[in-house]
Amino acid sequence: MATLPTMLKKELLETWRTYRFLILAVVVLIFALMSPLIAKLTPDIMKMSFGKTLQLAIPKPTSIDSWTQFYKNMTQMGIFVVAILFGGTMSQELSRGTLVNLVTKGLPRWVVAVSKYISLVVQWSVALTASFLVTWGYTAYYFPDAKTPYIWQGFVPLLLFGFFFLAVILFGSTLANNSYGGLLFTILVVGGLYLVNLFKAAQNYNPISLIGNNMALVQGHKTLGELGPGIAIAIGAGLVLLAGTVILLNRKKL
Amino acid sequence: MNTNWQLLADNLPIFIPLILLELILMVTALVHVLRHPHYRFGNRILWVLIVVFIQIIGPILYFVFGRGDERRG
Fold this sequence. Notes:
A: 76% helix; elongated; B: mainly alpha
């Protein structure tokens, strides 16, 4: 147990020195800045392209457009960037044999898995919260309307989905022997979940519902309580995957 | 043309940090490309071009797929 903080420190140091955290933070901040910008510029762009020839009644952008952009970027590009950045988190150590020394000197293997997971969760939470606050600030400044009253309700499911998603990545990375295999596993899982989402009966229980309803939540058309089953399953599946990672790692030849 | 400048000026509070962030990403990757001679594939010129001309995606590609093993320098 005493080794956990040490391993965690090593993980955080590693993510800093390999520039992973820097890239994640900068990219999500770019998305955060682009969301209100694109929302604000869309009418101007439309006007510039066919303003003279076509008399279009373009509605004034609102805070809804800004948050729509934010959740669209984060749940598509954002999630994808996380997957390619962290797809090699365990498989790289396995293929390079950097864990051999630590484990033969008595480091429990579950400490490796848990410390990696904690470090991923910390990075995701910090980066996402920062970008959320940035978008919030700009949206409040440029679109001071009351159309998006429940901002936190849209943010919480995305954060929780991230926890689940990181567990999938870590499991895939342990399962595969290279970072591409882990990435493939992650893509298959998310693709599978989207397929399941086609069935209406399963939609409420699907972790994907955490990133599909953010705008409805922000506008107050839905409440967090309605997503309860999806949230519970996402957290449960995340814990199962983390336990699975420990079991896999215990059986793996280093 | 006038309206374009107006547009830029109106959105300066967003444009400045946006450009700064993209520059940070580009410069970090560029410095790394120039200081480390080994890449998993491709050569220095290729990576410099990718990092400088493909905004946002270029530096990510370099750090994830392009950078060589630290032990070999």
